[in-house]
Specification:
The chain is mainly α. The chain contains two helices and no strands. The radius of gyration is 20 Å and the shape is elongated.
Amino acid sequence: MKQKKEFSKVILALVMVCQFFGVGFGAYIVKSYPEMLGEYLTFIGAPVAVAIAFYSWKAKAENVIKLDKRQIEKLDKVQ
């Protein structure tokens, strides 16, 4: 059975793929202009940090919903 891809996972994967290409291009630029290292590190870190933080926040929210449903099911079984 083929699983449906989650939208947030697709977005996270696209951001990561773009970052890998950007890291390669940025490394080429920094090789020519070493004084650009600070900007290069920001270019690498900022989008990845935002994407990972968003995905983690979303996963936490989904898990809270799942846990709430399980608690309700447990209460129904007790009664």
